[in-house]
Design a protein that fits this description.
- 2 copies of one chain form a homodimer.
- By secondary structure, chain A is α/β, with parallel strands linked by helices.
- Helix content of chain A is 34%, strand content 18%.
- Chain A is built from 14 helices and 13 strands.
- In chain A, strands 3-2-1-4-5-10-11 form a 7-stranded mixed sheet, with helices on both faces. In chain A, strands 7-8-6-9 form a 4-stranded parallel sheet, with helices on both faces.
- In chain A, a hairpin with a 2-residue loop joins strand 12 and strand 13.
- The two termini of chain A are 30 Å apart.
């Protein structure tokens, strides 16, 4: 058999390099010959920016184990959308000539919706020219909003980071004996999965966030102020988790007025957290702070989930296996078999069923008051954050693979 | 001998509970009898909000080890400034009656400048009434701006978190092959120590931040834009670390205009990071993102420095030892003996020498271009972030002591 090529695309997660390691391990164990990596997504194939991953593995015995816990994307990313497969666009001819040049039998694309769209189009085009090349997508997104798969690689690690962060913010918020509200704004424009993960911070030693608001249900500022007022009669320091994507009943984002310009003439738009901070100060007149969980929610490899990392490796390995079996135009998926003990199996699904639909949090996993999650959500989340990879440290910092 | 009482005050750090554990361990091994904890700083003594820490240790064998890596403040905090010791204020009479009631021979206050001020005043008052009670301060501040001591507990862990975060942000920033600037804003209004710690992210596998700006030298936006333009000719993705406290030559903070009001009528003030983000977009017209490192820089116990934790424990223990020796009105300090191997010794200093002066980064530890740090700074920082405490995890999250 011929060679394989693998690329990464879209935004980073902590687990996307684990899937790359899985593809490499799978390919080493397969009938395939060389393992190429394309730099900056599919652009590397187009522009001959291709590296020999097998050579790198041979030259550094610790490469694969370090790669599994290295954040972001070893091969770099791109934002490149292919024209439709029947467009007659010369890019297809170019790409398939390049595949031929590198002797490619299978192409693996680790990414989100756009990357799956690319896999879909390349496999459709391959069909029209009777190409033997297999195209397999391997998912990743911290947002967990892909359909068909039980969950997405990167979500478990992001959840672990967010739950830990929430817990530490709660400890921080509780030190003074005077009323305060702390608002944690979590990523997730349309789906509340990551915000829901803050619920994991409620356990036998931490009270957890007091209120959780997801974008799947309308947000009402009056109800929010009432929720806070009621709680402030019972406890001193309130911690609230909100999704960046919360919207009012009309579907408008909760954000501060955009009418003002800064000194450089740019419109100022405050996000949900900052806007609610102003609201609390204004309406309740108490100390309030908002915290925007930054890009670390997708990059904090120093506290990734072992479950997430191991599954991501296996998704990559299974991708190679499916390609070997002649399967093409699919995305590898995880199916949850049971919660306790937590077991999953790996399968594949036609990309057309996945790429055009976003998976929101089911309404029945949000409580009746729309300010917390149900036990079903907790049971769903719990296994995904389990386990800690063994990280190598040098000079006090985690060791990652050099880009 | 009688009993001891310990309290915590000021803002939290990751190491302040380690010092509490050190005081408890020191007191257990001492001639002192009971070990009381005062809730919410000195207010607990005033209001009879006092707990028996010895009892808690006896009832939970794992309490002390967990306490050492629990963030924030187990005993809670306060912001309470005593009137001058010769003011004749009745608070002194009240506090010393309370000390008598609890049979106190020594009082330990773990905190920052305000807490040291309290220790200073209580020991001065004790002198006037010939009290036998010893007053010992144990420092903490992530800002590292206390004089006399080589460094402060909490700074090493904050540095480790900030350096790791910087590294992960750099990995995240490098994925696209198009120009970008990422600005990381770090806490530190007057002292640049924490911002300087981002320099640790430069090692053999990570390029580190490209530019570092500290508040100790004037910040010039034109020079900043030039620094960026020059670098953008050499590399694609630039990462900049700035202190929240950077000021121009006139001493004005670098912040966006305060003239505008949000929808609730509050003046909007953007910090240094956001302001520079606008500037970069405006002047260079390229993608720019600013990240405010949030309260986790003082609360991220999940990635604390073992060196910091162990030293904090020893500071607490030494505090008890000094009190036993009859020393009062002092703060325990760390003296660095050597960098390689890193060795320290513990001593004490009169609080008057410490409380009224802030320790800034020496000008000679900032490079000539005012946009990075010197090797002396790196040698100073390196030992402080070394080592990782063994954390217990349960259900995927670090286990902390319940507050």
């Amino acid at each position: 058999m011929g060679n394989v090529i693998v690329a990464q695309s879209g935004g980073p997660t902590v687990a996307i390099n684990a899937s790359l390691a899985g593809v490499i391990e799978g390919a080493i164990a397969s009938k395939y010959d060389k393992i190429y990596g394309s730099i900056n997504g599919i652009l590397g194939i187009k522009d001959d920016n291709v590296i020999d991953l097998g050579q790198i593995v041979d030259s550094d015995p610790s490469f694969l184990s370090k790669l599994k816990t290295t954040p972001a994307m070893y091969l770099g990313s791109c934002r490149f959308k292919l024209p439709s497969a029947d467009s007659g666009d010369p890019i297809y001819d170019l790409l398939f000539k390049q595949f031929e040049k590198y002797g490619i039998d299978a192409f693996f694309y680790i990414g989100g919706n756009d990357s799956m769209d690319t896999v879909d189009k390349l496999s459709a085009y391959a069909k029209t020219i009777d190409s033997h090349i297999r195209f397999v997508g391997i998912p990743k997104t911290i947002d967990n909003d892909l359909c068909v798969t039980d969950h997405t690689p990167g979500f478990g690690s992001a959840s672990k980071y967010i739950a830990t962060t929430t817990m530490e913010v709660i400890y921080d918020a509780q030190i003074y004996n005077s009323p305060s509200v702390t608002i944690i704004e979590v990523m997730g424009r349309d789906a509340g999965w990551l915000t829901a993960a803050t619920s994991l911070a409620r356990n036998e030693y931490c009270c957890g966030p007091d209120l959780i608001y997801l974008p799947e249900v309308p947000f009402n500022t009056e109800v929010f102020v009432n929720d806070l007022s009621r709680l402030l009669k019972e406890k001193t320091n309130i911690v609230v988790a909100v999704s960046e994507g919360i919207r009012d009943a009309k579907g408008e984002y909760i954000s501060a007025s955009t009418g003002q310009l800064d000194q450089f003439g740019h419109a100022q738009l405050s996000g949900a957290g900052k806007t609610l901070e102003y609201l609390v100060k204004d309406r309740l007149g108490i100390k309030c702070r908002s915290i925007e969980v930054n890009v670390l929610q997708r990059a904090a490899a120093h506290i990734s989930s072992l479950t997430d990392i191991e599954e991501s490796v296996l998704l990559g390995k299974n991708g190679v296996k499916f390609a070997e079996e002649g399967i093409t135009g699919v995305m590898v998926i995880v199916k949850r078999v049971s919660n306790a003990p937590y077991t999953v199996e790996y399968s594949h699904a036609t990309i057309h069923d996945i790429a055009n639909e976003a998976k929101e949090v089911p309404k029945e996993w949000i409580n009746a008051d729309h300010n917390w999650v149900t036990d079903e959500m907790l049971e769903y989340l719990k296994p995904l954050v389990l386990g800690e990879p063994t990280l190598e440290y040098k000079n006090g910092l985690p060791v990652y693979v050099q880009r």
